[in-house]
Batch of 4 targets.
Target 1
Amino acid sequence: MKVLSLSVIFFIMTINPVLSMDGEVVNNNASEIKVQKEETTEINKVETLKTLGYFHEDTKQQDINKRNAIIRFQSEHNLTVDGIYGPQSETVLSALVNGSERRYLDVIDQPPTKGKWMTINKTKRILTLYEGDKVMKKYPVAQGKEPGLTPEGKFTIVNKLVNPGWGGAGIAQPVKGGSPNNPLGYRWMGINHGGGGSYGIHGNNNPRSIGTNASLGCVRMINSDVAELFDIISLKTPVWIGTHEKLKEWGVDQKSYLGYIEEIRLAEEKATKEKQAIKQAEIEKAKQEEAMKQAEIEKVLQEKEESNKQIEEPENIPTIKEYLEYINGIQH
């Protein structure tokens, strides 16, 4: 699969260089052109994310909306969620623009239920909602600022609250539910670890924290995402929380889309080599057939030449002298 970069797909610029007196190429606007190119590529990246459905008007701050689009895109393709549009995100987005299929690559051995359940991948900062062994949706999250703060294990949802109050966690003043300054946001889904009131999945009052390790142990989501999830799941919904490797041990393999791209590349490379091999074999066969035809022609020509030679120069015909001597011998 030939993958073009977004800068090639969306930005084509022709530069007419100016020659100095000694023939050296001079470009007085190089810096300006570079800035314009970067701005154009950035605009096209955002437009592509909008077209693919990742860009939402979550806030009035467009930089936050753009970052949310990036982390949603990363989570859907099982990339590490960090909000940075780096080489991996570029590779995947370019592949999609070039026609690669949008698909989930998760493989589930034994789901805990045929109904809805969730995993939280601490390595990649992704919450995945499943129904049986099928992915329903993926969400970017934030987790504990230290590796051990967010608990690992197989839990269930034990309570759900709209506009939960925050008690301050012993480090700050409590905040009433519904306040825009509430660290829990506007939704809470507690898990059966620490009694259901200590650890849970909730919203946030710091949107830039999503896609980072920032919490005291809870799992934070984009406020609009957690509101959507809140309405989908019910009490007793299973929630498996672990690292990428721990989830694999439990039979949940959340394969990166990058691996899928590589598989396609290798398959196409193999197919190309096979086609080349077939074509080369056909060429060799044609050469052999041509050589055989040429050999047959040469054989026929040689036989004809030898036949003509025998007609032109018959064997055992006596000379005149030999003939006269033969006649004289008979007479005597």
Note: Residues 6-97 form a domain with the Muramoyl-pentapeptide Carboxypeptidase; domain 1 fold (CATH 1.10.101).
Target 2
Amino acid sequence: MRPGVLVSIFFAVCVSSNDVKTEDYAKIKLSEIESNFKLDATNPPYAISDKTTKRCVAPCWDGEFYKRKQLERVHKVSAYQTKEEELTSYNSNPENSSTLTLTKSTAITEARTQGWTVGGIMDSGLLKITAQYTDTITVGKIETKTVGTEYPCPPLHECVIETWTFHVRITGVCSEPKPMLDCGGTHDLCATKEPHKRPCRSFSKNTVSGSKVEDECKDYMEDRKAPCEITTPVEESQKPYTVIVFRSAKKSSKRSELDQPQPDYQIISAN
């Protein structure tokens, strides 16, 4: 099956990354994702399970049986970011800055909910993010991109360069998994009450679980719903959407962490 763009996510970045502190910038972006998320009711996210293929001959050579459920209502959208430390350095020179050189940025993606197909779009004027995830994408995937960034670390400062990767966690209500068949088109097996009229009679005998299609449909209740959750990273051009952040703090001679100055944050780049 070919996945489509199934979720619409819209947010508008009202403040430039140069106008706010990085920690505030992150909060703003996370809040915008959460508050402006919209579900495309005509093409909701869906999950496929219990796949099996059998020889059919007609109307198709091989038919694929599966169960399909979809997200029907969104209760809550939670946005968050994972952080990966790329470089850490302490500049012990009391007078001159040192240089941190970043050659690659690592995006750490949280495990996606396997079996789901989810797509989305974020549009904030200059920034346009599209996303499409399928069950063929490796769960817990780590992706890197090559960058060439040099950043000065001030005298007597500890400096860190991090990559932040944005995610969304969607909780809501899903439909009952429906027995389906791809064979010369997509067929709702339970919509056909007479077995001899179903395409690919192999599936009228047994499914992957060993029960007859009639038994599957007997157990299926269209009005029955269940809580469900989807976790997925935000992507841009099929790559995780990330922000590279520079963090620095002057080291105090005092030992107490309470006496240490708060770090300064600066955004190096956002893809």
Note: The radius of gyration is 25 Å.
Target 3
Amino acid sequence: MAGPTARSRDHERVSEGSSGRRTWAVAEIDLPRTTAEQVCTAFLDVMAEPAPWACIDAWSDYRDELPAEVEHAQTALQQLHAHRDGQDTGMGIGIDRSDPAQEALLRTYAAWSIHVELLSAAEQEALVTFHDGASSITAELTGTEVERLRERLAGVASVERLERLHAQARVRREQERWERRAQRKQQWLARLGWSPQRDVRRQEEELLCAECGHPQGAHPGPGQRDLKVCAVCVYEEDYELREESEMCRRAYPG
């Protein structure tokens, strides 16, 4: 009998979390404006019942790109803040989503605001947060809410566990770090005038040093210009210094 597919395993994991909320996020960042609006609308729809309250900042990083209706919503939010709370900061404006007029302003401006929170009630912890013009979105969701969002956003954006996205980002950063290190290592060896020699017919790597395991060509010998120690060892030990001059002093102590 065939084992579960990746899709079925993912469905099982969602189902397991249906009784409580776990931290999820939209995997894509810096979405195009029209896509960001679509994603925000999906969250506003799905979370309408569990998050009947919102808190929004009437400021935008896209102030020079605001469509007329969005700019109008921004002004209306600032006026609402000033009239109701006697403040004109435009920050932390409470929105009662049961009020059609306030809900309309929220929906129009959510994807453009520097910060939006959807809440179960005023002063409660956010269930959903739109960060910096919805350039990133995080949410505390049940399994059912995740499934509804995935249906709404199919082909548009993906909703994944935040811890999984963080793990993937760590792997990417580590891979990029090793790639940069390998590139810098080759630049260092080229600086010393060393390159691995290959037998063209047999395509075999140069013999390795029995002591350190590095190619023998990286060691002192003919053509190595007074190299005193293994050039690769110098790099392996000193690469964190980030200074080629320091490595040169180690390789050429004389």
Note: The two ends are 69 Å apart (CA to CA).
Target 4
Amino acid sequence: MNASELDADKIRGIIEALLMTAGQPLTPGRLVGLLKGLSGKDLRRAVDDLNERYRVGGHAMAIVEIAGGFQLATHKEYGPWVRKFHDRGQVRLSQAALETLAIVAFKQPVGRVEVDSIRGVDSSGVMRTLFEANMVRMVGRSEGVGRPMMFGTTKEFMVHFGLKSLADLPKPKELEELLAEGARRHGAAAATRDTEEQVDRDQEHEAVEIDAVDAADSAVRPPPSQNGATPSPAAETADDQ
């Protein structure tokens, strides 16, 4: 049935039903494709009307724009009760994973070597976790030597953090501190390696010096007597007399 044959209440009801059962954001193009004859302007008006009805009626939900589409979501104030009733299955990310994900999000497209350099540690395990969580994906290859893989965030990343688009990514001071901390750790690790290498070199030099002293001492030491004892200085003086 064409949308032009439906009244406004029916169109709003269809949009509400689709969003309620979708479980993921539906793009305007998808909704318009399902409701033949509905323009983008009419779709926007219907969404705005629904949200106004939810607001006036004190409903616990609203239609929000996430990842380039529309999604029916509960208000934040009801979050604790919703989570208590049913875990949405959101990925629980460790601090290391969040740190790595922040770097990928703000630097994308980015290679793993650059991520490692910023964090100061190997990130292969964390990147694998983010892949399995569908938070990052391969977006291409660098034109540099070896053509390493380049990574970026996924649509699931935007849904998870409630972002309408990547343009909505904040530019927090925390990220600058995160990158600075990674650089400090990287520098400290390099300094530690340099110190350890210097200690190893000093120990090697010390061992060589000890060997040299032992060799010199052996060269000037008197030979042992026939019975295996080394003559004392007093005995040597008596013999001379």
Note: The radius of gyration is 36 Å.
